[in-house]
Every structure is written in C-alpha cells, then in structure tokens.
Design goal:
This protein is of the alpha+beta class. The protein is built from 11 helices and 9 strands. It has a 7-stranded mixed beta sheet, with helices on both faces. Strand 1 and strand 2 form a beta hairpin. Helix 2 crosses helix 3 (32-39). The protein is rod-shaped, with a radius of gyration of 36 Å. The relative contact order is 0.09.
C-alpha cells in the first residue's frame, strides 16, 4: 500500500475505493473490467465499489455504445466531499444533543439490571453454598438448622469448617430447636454469631443468605435456589436483617 492509498483511507475511503480512485486518476474513461485490472481488484466487486465512488461524487460514469465507462472527477472534489461529511456530522451532533435529555432520563429510569441465577436439586443448592465461600464480608443469614441438615446432611459440618478456615464470619437467625441449640455450641469454632427465635411463632424452612452484592434464596424442602446479584437489593436486605437481628436479640434475652 502506497502513501496516497493510506491517506485516502484516513479520510474515509475503503482500501479498494482508494485503489480504484487512484487507478482512474491516470486512466481516463475505462470500463469496470479495465480499471479492475489496473487496480488489481477482483472484477466481481468492482461494480459495487465504483457505484459507491459515484455516489460520493468522486467518480463519474457515462454509457457509450451500450458500454459504461468510468472516470475520476477533479481531485478538488475530495475536499468538497470532506466538507459535505463535516456538514452531515455537524447536523447529526445537533440531533443527538437535542435527544440527550430524553435519552438520559430513560437511561436513569432503567438503571442496572440485577443478575438472576436459578438452581435445582441438591447439587444446585450446594453450588449456592459454595458461592457463599467467596464472600468478602460477614454473611447475614436466616436459616433452619433442621432443614439444612435434613436436606444436605453429608455436606455439613464440613462446610462450616471450610467457611471458618477462610475467616468468613456469619451472623445468623435460627428457629429455636434441639438441633439449633446443639449447633450453637460450636459457634466460636465455626465463626458464627447465632440467635435463636421461638419456633412456634417464627419458625421457617427456606434459607436466605446476604453476602457481597448477592441474595441467595434456598428452599431446602422443595430443592431449588435462586441467587440475585444486585447492590441495591442486597443493601436493602442487609438493613432488614439488621433490624430483625435487633428484634431477635431482644427475644433471645427474654
């Protein structure tokens, strides 16, 4: 590629447009076949490229004896072609500026969309538990120890040990049962701060974990789970948990 071809491409011509344009400058009126040979371009695409140059006003065409021939116009047309583009883009800039307020209001209204993942069966729920081991903060959890161990008995307490080894602390609220009381005996070793609430009034089976920017909902009886990744929603659930923690602490003292 010579320097002129490079410069023509910089002002918006394609590589083949630049080759054909330069070939036509020195060739005079020629057929598409002839200019394709001069420019060393495949003849099948030459007609399309020539018509593109004609639309840009850089090439003219004329039919003589039922044969169409092409020739370049004065090189000064390049300058007017660029000026035409500048006027067109200036007009487009004005149109975009006029649309910006409405576009911004739409963008602000939508905001970022939460990422939602769905899991099924015991293996899917284990995947969610494994993801909690990536937490870089204290996990907040509503959890039924009885349902956890009934659903995935072989998975616990190895999970607790691995979480504690990673120094991932958890604050958790549990229905008060025999299994829960037994588990609370291991709180220090398992990096847990747990509170018990009356099973008869506040018993529940699903588990909710809040960590990082995620909320994990797990049904240990129906064997499915959903993880929602959303900073806004996770922040809201943290506050709800912290409020529930205050209430649970008051009940535990009583």
């Amino acid at each position: 590629m010579n320097e002129l071809e490079q410069q023509l491409q910089k002002i918006g011509l394609s590589d083949k447009e630049a080759k054909l344009y330069l070939a036509l400058l020195s060739a005079g009126p020629v057929t598409a076949r002839e200019v394709a040979h001069l420019a060393k371009i495949n003849r099948s695409t030459t007609y399309v490229i020539l018509e593109s140059l004609v639309k840009k006003g850089l090439v003219s065409s004329i039919e003589q004896n039922k044969i169409r021939k092409y020739s370049s116009v004065s090189p000064e047309r390049l300058l007017s072609h660029i000026e035409d583009q500048i006027r067109e883009y200036t007009s487009m800039v004005g149109q975009v500026n006029s649309m910006l307020p409405q576009l911004k209001s739409i963008y602000t209204g939508i905001g970022p969309k939460p990422k939602i993942q769905y899991f099924e069966e015991a293996e899917g729920i284990k995947t969610v538990y494994e993801d909690t081991l990536t937490s870089n903060e204290t996990i907040r959890a509503f959890a039924s120890i009885d349902d956890m161990h009934e659903a995935l008995g072989e998975y616990f307490p190895a999970y607790y040990h691995r979480r504690a080894a990673k120094k991932i602390h958890i604050k958790s609220i549990h229905p008060d049962t025999t299994a829960s009381r037994e588990r609370m005996k291991h709180n220090k070793k398992e990096a847990r701060e747990g509170l018990l609430i009356p099973q008869d009034k506040f018993g529940f089976t699903p588990e909710i974990n809040i960590y990082n920017d995620k909320i994990a909902f797990m049904s240990l009886t129906e064997k499915h789970a959903m993880v929602i990744e959303s900073k806004e929603l996770a922040d809201a659930l943290r506050k709800i948990f912290d409020l529930a923690w205050i209430g649970a602490k008051s009940i535990s003292k009583k």
